[in-house]
């Protein structure tokens, strides 16, 4: 007979996992490219050709996973401790650059083993994840609301393009050895309750789940991958994530054979209190270089 744990030890919704709705997309018809226009078009055309697929998924609370550790290189993300001074002036981008970026660079150096870190931007998010929030969520600039579509932030070409745009004089040289874009995401000052960030374990994503998504900003075109559903995806989040915790995650890696793009989204936690405050979070992106590793050209295929 199979021994069963007493019912008090069975996984409980809201403690070890939560069932919630996330939004995937339908893959485009052959020959089409998923495209969003961040601002409504003057001719009144529909701002995007995406068909969303709202899907209920089960997200496991990382805190309940005793003994299972997540590896950045395999799963694409990890939950780490990160103590940040309480008096950072988040309203001032200059202060964030001088007070927060150096701490973030140290943390990334520690977790990546890279030889050089170049922090290049940060974004504050305030609000609740909503199903109709795409356009506002993708507004350029560094004040946004939580995202509500399953996505990655870069593509195979996007990572290289970002390096060339940020460090034009050095890019040719820096592209010869492995490089990546990593992110640090954390609650700004208070515990996150209502709209946490969820991740798909990168090891459970198939290349066919990635759909190139073109995003037209005024004067600039960006690309990411919008994910289509796959029952193999394993989802994770952290219930009541605290400001001394952070996610480090892989947004792009020039190497094949490891976690390269870690899909994520904000979502409404249906077990959070109805009067839970809107989420406030900060995300920061950095190029990571392994200049002493074996030379290797960036892989431009998935
Ligand atoms: C990100 C992101 C969404 C959110 O950090 O890249 O998509 O809701 N965040 O915080
Ligand atoms: Fe993102």
Please tell me the total number of domains. 1
| Unreliable runs | none
Strand order of the largest sheet: 4-12-7-14-5-6
Largest sheet: 6 strands, mixed
Q: What's the gyration radius in Å? A: 19 Å
Question: Could you spell the SSE succession in H and E letters?
Answer: EEEEHHEHEHHEEEEEEEE
Bound molecules: N-oxalylglycine, fe (iii) ion
Organism: Apatococcus lobatus
GO molecular function: oxidoreductase activity
Protein name: Methyltransferase
Family: Belongs to the asaB hydroxylase/desaturase family.
Give me the secondary-structure topology.
Layout: E1 17-25, E2 34-37, E3 52-61, E4 77-81, H1 93-99, H2 101-112, E5 116-127, H3 134-137, E6 143-144, H4 156-166, H5 171-174, E7 179-187, E8 197-200, E9 210-217, E10 220-227, E11 235-237, E12 245-253, E13 264-266, E14 279-289
Parallel strand pairs: 2-9, 3-11, 5-6
Antiparallel strand pairs: 1-3, 4-12, 5-14, 7-12, 7-14, 8-11, 8-13, 9-10
The structure holds N-oxalylglycine and fe (iii) ion.
Protein name: Methyltransferase
GO molecular function, one term: oxidoreductase activity
Family: Belongs to the asaB hydroxylase/desaturase family.
Provide a descriptive summary of the structure in words.
This is Methyltransferase. With 302 residues, the protein is mainly β. The chain has helices spanning 93-99, 101-112, 134-137, 156-166, 171-174, and strands at 17-25, 34-37, 52-61, 77-81, 116-127, 143-144, 179-187, 197-200, 210-217, 220-227, 235-237, 245-253, 264-266, 279-289. The protein has a single domain, classed as Jelly Rolls, CATH 2.60.120. It is built from 5 helices and 14 strands. The strands form 3 sheets. A 6-stranded mixed beta sheet has the order 4-12-7-14-5-6. It has a 5-stranded mixed beta sheet with strand order 1-3-11-8-13, with no helix packed on it. The chain binds N-oxalylglycine and fe (iii) ion. Fe (iii) ion is lined by residues 147, 151, 153, 264.
């Amino acid at each position: 007979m199979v021994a069963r744990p007493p019912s008090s030890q069975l996984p409980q919704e809201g403690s070890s996992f939560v069932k919630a709705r996330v939004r995937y997309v339908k893959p485009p018809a052959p020959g089409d490219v998923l495209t969003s226009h961040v601002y409504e078009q003057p001719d009144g055309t529909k701002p995007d050709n995406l068909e969303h697929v709202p899907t209920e998924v089960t997200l496991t609370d990382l805190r309940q996973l005793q003994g299972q550790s997540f590896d950045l290189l395999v799963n694409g993300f990890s939950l780490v401790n990160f103590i940040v001074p309480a008096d950072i002036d988040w309203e001032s981008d200059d202060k964030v650059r001088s007070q927060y970026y150096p701490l973030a660079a140290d943390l990334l150096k520690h977790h990546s083993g890279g030889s050089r870190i170049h922090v290049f931007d940060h974004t504050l998010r305030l609000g609740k994840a909503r199903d109709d929030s795409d356009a506002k969520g993708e507004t350029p600039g560094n004040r946004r609301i939580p995202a509500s579509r399953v996505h990655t932030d870069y593509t195979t070409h996007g990572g290289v393009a970002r390096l060339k745009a940020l460090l034009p004089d050095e890019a040719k040289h820096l592209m010869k050895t492995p490089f990546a874009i990593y992110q640090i995401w954390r609650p700004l000052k208070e515990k996150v309750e209502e709209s946490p960030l969820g991740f798909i374990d990168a090891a459970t994503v198939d290349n066919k789940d990635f759909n190139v998504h073109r995003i037209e900003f005024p004067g600039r075109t960006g690309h990411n991958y919008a994910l289509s559903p796959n029952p193999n995806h394993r989802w994770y989040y952290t219930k009541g994530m605290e400001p001394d915790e952070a996610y480090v995650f892989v947004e792009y890696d020039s190497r094949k054979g490891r976690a390269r793009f870690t899909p994520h989204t904000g979502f409404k936690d249906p077990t959070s209190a109805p009067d839970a405050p809107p989420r406030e979070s900060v995300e920061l992106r950095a190029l990571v270089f392994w200049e002493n590793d074996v030379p290797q050209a960036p892989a431009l295929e998935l």
